[in-house]
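assembly run, all chains below
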Amino acid sequence: MKHNYWKKIIIALFIVVFLSGCWDSRDINYRSMPILMGVTKDEELFHVYMIIPVSVVSEQRNLAKVDGKGATIVDAIEQLKKKIETTIDLEHIGYIVFDEELGKQGIEKMVKTFMRMRDMPSTPSVAFVKEDMNDYIEMMISTFEEVGVPIFGFLEKQTGWEIYNPEVSLWEVYRGIYSYTTDIAIPIISSNQDLATGYFGAAVLKEGKIIDTLSSMEVMLMNLLNNENVIKTFVNINDTTNVELVDRSVEYDYSFKGEEIDLTIKVEFIMIVSEADDHLTGEDIQKKFEEKMKKDMLQMIKKLQDKHVDVLGIGNRMRKNYTNAELEKFLDEIYPNINVDVEVNAVIENNGKIRNLNNDDFEDWDQQKQD
Amino acid sequence: MSDGKRKGFKVKINNLLIILFFFITNVGVMFLLYPTLILDTVDNGHWLVVLLHGFSHIIILGVLLVGLSKLKEPNILRYVPKNRWIISVAIFVPLALFIIGTVIVSIRTYAEFTTVLFLNQTPILYVMIIFIATATYIGLGSMESIFRTTFLIAAASSFFILIIFILSFLNARWYNLFPIKVDRIDFLFEMPFITGFLILTPTFLFLAFLPKGKKMDVKSIFWFAWFIIPLIFIAAYSPMLVFGYEAAQNFTFPYIEMLATVDIQWSIFETLTSLFGLSLLIYATLFLGMLLHILRMLYQSVFQTGSLHASIALVVMVIVITLTANMISTWDEVQNHIAWLIPFRFYSIISLLIFIFWIGRREKHEA
Amino acid sequence: MDFINQIEDIKQKNKDLQMKSIMINGISYDIVGFESLVDFSATWEIVEMLIRNEEEKSSETAGFHSKNTSWKKIEFSKQIQALYEGKVIIWNRTEEVSLIVDPVSQPLYRSIEVPVNESIIYGAKDAFTENSHQNIGLLRSKYQSKDIEVLTTQHGKRNRRFSFLILKGTTDEKMVEMVKKKIEDYPNEIKQVKDIHVAFGFSKFSLITRISSTELPENAMEYIEQGKIVFFMDGYPFALVLFNTVFDVFKQPSDSNYLSVFVYSLYVLRIVGIMIAMLLPGLYVALITINPEMLKIQLALSITESRQFVPYSAFIEIIIMLLLIELITEAAVRLPLSISNTIGVVGGIILGQAIVEASLVSGVLIIIIAATTIANGIIINFENGITLRLMKYIIVIFSALFGILGHVIGLVVLCSYIARITSFGVPYVRWKKEGIQSENQ
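ok done. output:
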């Protein structure tokens, strides 16, 4: 039984190796799992805040604020770790907020650091905070404690986020920083007395710096042109008329004429009338909607083209015509000179539970009869 | 417990097991280093590189299978001629060095990967020791037991792998497929391409060393091997589809980073990455086990001169391998070592093929 | 009167040896047998009839004598052996010949009963008993064909009988011959199944039962038809089955009495059960101590909360609980049925509740342990259950040391261990008939 003999020796080796130490072993109750990280800058020092759920015996969960300052992000996190006796696991961070001021200076390096860190996930949502970071964190904590249980509510991306707010993950920001053809827009938020987050549209980043902001309406248009889900999106046409979008399809037609590029964005909407003036026919609503959409979109595209940023994915659709070397200059040289036109087509699926009596439903029928 | 030999009961290895092993090891090897190599090779038109690699892989495999199908015994070590030192110096020494080198580089890579993913604080040496010890344990069994282990592992994990393959396209954006223009083909002579070329060969070496009494169905293995090409495509292109070429080339393990972006609500676990990483690691362990087993067989039938038992020799080799791997301290050195292996790889594959055809012809003459 | 003297000798030492004399046609016969084995009052008639028959036959000269029942001079030691086997010897004093007769035996064997250890819902409800003749009879009644053959051998001082069943064309007869020889050549006494393992040259410390036992004739018959070797050891009320496969852990023949769809879902359920029984405790340790990042944040926080005042590490915690459960299981087996229920209640409910309130273990762990214990029960055959019970600990140890990675490495090591197990060259991980029958096909 020579074989068995050797098996035993190997097993013994195993055990010796195994018992020599367990480096990563630390029980879960000696670990803290922050769920939110806030980054700001204080007199040339990075200031990192974290919200950590603290378990207590009573059924209610409490939240704690921890902060640290340091010359770099990692240094600040290390300083923060020194302040509490449990190990901090960054793996569960679901939300990273940057100070808006920091965004104007550029967050590129921070995003790269976060992507580089081994224990940082690449999925947390990213946002800019309009107010002072300390106030924001305090307000968040008091809000959560008032509401009680649903402290994870704002992390559940499927619930709180609507189409008016961009939803951006860390890795998408990273991709936006590196990509030749696309940029990223990050939501700007602030805390709010009413147990909810206030939204102020989005900041458009170019190479990690905020160079422009989009209003809520523009964010919605951006999402419509990108591949976001549109169901249950309500669009105001004017003060009295409102439609609900059911479906949309976007098509990018472009043609090359020498140096010139003509781009036509064809957008088709299927919608439900949710609020309307009594005198409007379906066609009127449709037209108004189309005009409004077209105007707003063109306006926004112009604005973005002037700033050499592309958050709508126009460049992405043109990737196939270039090589990567050519794409490197795409946003600065080719993109601003594209002649963009927008064609909007809207179809009313229904009028809700009330019929629109202004419509002549048999118009087509009558016309045919006359012919 | 030498199976098959006792009392003449032949044990049939199912063809399926061979194919399964082939795929499992390919998955284990392909998804870590290969995407980086592909991304490094060219700026545009990675599909050409993928196809070149894939087809060359299949051609070499096909030639090997044709050569093997001419032989009566599936294990080429039975044909090692009597004046064997010339052959062993010419063919088997480089082959053994190639295998040893592959094992060294692999355990170093997988240990690195493990520390990135699971055990941030554990020293790399100890991670390497777990891998190599497990691989040795697998390698000490018969080749058939390795196949059967693979079957059990595959039965337990293939479900996850399939789901992960599907989910890896969750964040994919089709326009990141572009640009697909091929603007130059001088990459053929550049380092990343050559490094990637035939990097998968160790996965089918085992076909030349199958145990006695095994009749494999050469054709079905060959046709199943074509599924390698879609696998390579998934490995190379899914990081690109998610991040775009520009961002994807920054990562050490692009495929793993790509999986880390998948955020699903319904999973029991927080991330898919860990599950996929675990599957890769156990597949790789099986692969290493097979390489060590081949090494043991080589020692047994070619290099054994003294009375040192093959298993003990293997354990000694493994200790040497671990110490060598421990000397590779930085990740850049790992890349260097991969480059060192290239001549060994080409030489040993070609000489092995020549050897197989030579013994095939000799056998024909004798008959 | 050598014979009589020797019988008297034995009688001195064994008070239950009976010798009765009878005179028929002027010849005196002695009837010898163990009172404890033979029901004399019932046997008497048979004996009398036999002797009378014999008288008539010998006068006729023609007529047929079966070999066994003819009068002849038999070696004394053989006669004694026959006595111990429960036979009766009729001794003809004048001619000094003897006749060995199968008497009516004392009711030493229980009758065929409903299976106790392997409960089934749909399927034959008979179970094997200690008497291997009865067991073979049970099988013959299920396969009424000339294809069934029985090979018997006896071994050791105890003269233990081993009967092998052979299904012509399916069973590998060379293999049976070899197995039989292994038993015959074994120098020591075969007392328990463990000794058979040793006789066959299997490792004593194997985690896998290579010779499984089944109580159900239906299962045994199915195993024979699969080409496995089924044999009986006298006094062991189970059929011993050689070459069980990894599939036998979650498949059993009587499953086929259900709807096919249900059967497949049952297989899936059992595989899930096996996974839970083997992996769940290890997973708990790995996720709690080393890799909590894999847990969902909500789950992680609630576990943190329930572990708040637990002084031990997760490994110690789970070992305490597992140990407790093993104790409860063992106690329930040992104690009489009526008391073992109490053990269940005390162990399960009272202890479980108290141990959480005393903060010795966390509440989540109780759920894990309960799931593991329940899942362990879903596995076909108690022996396989024991295997999983043991493997669980290996995985737990691996997990405690290397987290989730150690968990899967432990799984790989176990898979590799299972995969390399072969019995007489037949691998444990194989398809139904693979390996056993390659010779015949």
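Confidence is low (pLDDT under 50) at residues 60-68, 437-441 of chain C.

Chain C has 13 helices and eleven strands.

not gonna interpret more than that til we talk
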